[in-house]
User: What shape does this take?
Amino acid sequence: MKVFLTEKDGKAGERIEAFDLGHAKQLAWTEPGLEVIGEHALTIQREGFNENDADRMCKALSESHH
Assistant: This one.
């Protein structure tokens, strides 16, 4: 399963686990206003850098643009 990022009301939404983009959009459709914005791909490599670090970075970046 892949992880997809979502957005709701201009803010970061929940992550969705799905087989592909179409499946993620289908799952997001059940919640009004939830939009799939792309696949989550961890591209930063550093010893000790993990999913929680990536989540914090993504949240900070999304909040700084709004």
